[in-house]
Amino acid sequence: MKIYILTDMEGISGIGRCEMVMPDEGGQHYQYGRKCLTEDINAAVAGAFDGGATDVVVNDGHGGGRHLILEQADPRALYERPVSGYHLMPSLDESFDGLFAVGAHAMAGTIDAFLDHTQSSATWHNYWINGELHGEVGQCAAFAGHYAVPLVLVTGDEAACGEARRLYDDPITVAVKKAQGRETATCIHPQKAREMIRQGARQAMELIGSKQPWVLEPPITVRLEVYRADVIDRMAESDRVKRIDARTVEMTVNSALEILKWA
Question: Would you say the pTM of this structure is higher than 0.90?
Answer without folding.
Answer: yes
